[in-house]
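S1.2 Input.
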Amino acid sequence: MSHEEKHLRNSDFITDVVIGMSDGLTVPFALAAGVSSAVSDNDIVITAGIAEMIAGSIAMGLGGYLAGKTEVEHYQSELKREWEEVERVPEREKEEVKEISKEYGFSEDAQTMLVEELVKDKNKWVDFMMKFELGLEKPHEKRASRSALTIGISYLIGGIIPLVPYFFTDTPIEGLKISAIITLCCLFTFGYFKSKATGQPVFSGALKVTLIGAAAASAAFLVAKLFEV
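S1.3 Output.
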């Protein structure tokens, strides 16, 4: 009987989609809820929502770009340092390889054999140290730009959902009622698939995402009502 292993392959992409989509669904929804309690014209809600979507997607995308850029720069910095250590203090690095392999249960003979094999190829030696000593995987060269694009687009996709009902209703409160139903359903569905993709309990994960969105929108609505003139 064949055994098929299921692992999450592209965790960076999934992470970026989760960041963009979760904020995209939650923030514009909360904004629309707050504005709906203070105005009587759907056009104002739509205008405010679209403005927030654009600003939010740019800000989130820029944040993703800077985070991705930092990740790449950090990896390159540590890689350079590891190469210098392999060249300057190879004996110490060999001992570190033994210490790492010892933690994985290698016998002393196996530790020595591993060191002997690694030192034959410095590229593999350095790669081993990056992964097992520092816990760093080489990020994609275009990590920053891909992250920015994925987060920004995910934010826009998530952000348009709470605003759609306002295009087809007469008053903001009517739009908010439909928006709340649609958005909360989307949040629950999104939370379900996010939890499934990341190996978390699907129902509790979906419920958590939904409650966060509902709490944010409720708070915005109540605050706007509180300060309504």
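S1.4 Remarks. The helical segments are 11-36, 42-88, 90-103, 108-118, 122-133, 143-163, 172-197, 202-226.
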